Model the fold of this input.
Amino acid sequence: MATNILILDDEQNYLLILEAMLSDEGYNITALSDPETGLAFLDESEVDLVITDMKMPKLTGRDVLEHVKKNFSHIPVIIMTAFGSIESAVEAMKIGAFDYITKPFANEELMLSVTKAAQFAKTQRENRMLREQIKDRYSPNNIIGRSKPMLQVFEMIQKAAPGNSTVLITGESGTGKELVAQALHQSSPRCDNPFISVNCMALSAGVLESELFGHEKGSFTGAVALRRGRFEMADKGTLFLDEIGELSHDMQVKLLRVLQEKTIERVGGVESIKINIRIVAATNKNLKEAVENGTFREDLYYRLNVVSIELPPLRERREDIPFMIDHFLAKYSAENDKKFEGFSPAAMDYMSAYEWPGNVRQLQNVIERCVVLTSGTVINTDDLPAEIKDEEAQFKSAVDLLPTKINLAQALDKIEATLVRRALVQSNFVKVDAAEMLGLSKSLLQYKLKKYSISGK
Done:
């Protein structure tokens, strides 16, 4: 894509020379002698680089520069000035000009400056496109779900995103906690700044401290240079701390200090460094229980849990499963250059009735496996992994998902609710058929639906 350059100069000769030179180099040139017309052109057109004379009637080059910096901060500006006005050009550099050249200029000097600015403009354009792609990818609209629990999650993201308060995302492994953290960031005023992710469980306490806080040169064996940590890297953006429940006691104390004082010190350093970040944390642990057990600091818990977003497990939002299947089937079909009509009704029944102990991540992996291994255009029950079809495995997975501390009556209620829900799915939500499958009367089934708060569709 050719670079679009806007040239502003009230001297017609310079306009003609610059337009001819830069057009020959393959640039798209718009040359205007009136700076006010030029600013109007900027507002309506795609411009990658502005070259402007410093002294012009109506508006000066500085006026043009200030307008561009305020409204199009990604566009570099090159200032042209007479030799005797270099001081004003230097002043323009201080407020954000990319470069300045003096009139009369050498062609080589001009071309070098334009080449550098064009490359910078290309990088800026690519970064903007990448940010837009990331923003689209991690928009709340791209988190799949139409169930009531997920609508509540979307509402919480929308309400929490504009603020700076810490957010604690809870939920089982595989429910998509990092996706929600990304959506919070991309929907916030910090979206153009970094989103930095750290898995607190993946690193030992010593390594994690250096990763988060950075270190000074010589602070420990192997610290051969100063290194900025994740807190500094996330400045003006969002720091996502996954598996926050795995932090050691010492790291909990240090994180609490950061949240309170908004400053850090690198390992081996004494200087306090002010940071401006939003912290989003996630865990699959029950932090309230961890506080009661003395393994997690109560003051840190309340600092993190200013806004709480709980992600439901997939088994509690089964109405979302068909939409997720369609999404992942399209995704992996495209990646593997295959075409599928979909899942057969019987295969879809199995997928909808399964307990999904690994949640969305497991569902995603199963669909990818089916796409890779299925030779036809329809995914049938024979194409499903054994655990999806195995009634005993499904029952075992349901039992394994029960809390370890639960009395028999509660356990039986949960298992019965699971069987009722599965029968509804397999009967396509026809209650008479579901009751027949379970060996119940229709009135008894209605009672159990009400007892377990199971909707008919």
About this structure: The chain has a mean pLDDT of 87. The first strand starts at residue 4 and ends at 8. The domain at 139-312 is CATH 3.40.50.300 (Rossmann fold). The chain has three domains: 4-134, 139-312, 315-451.
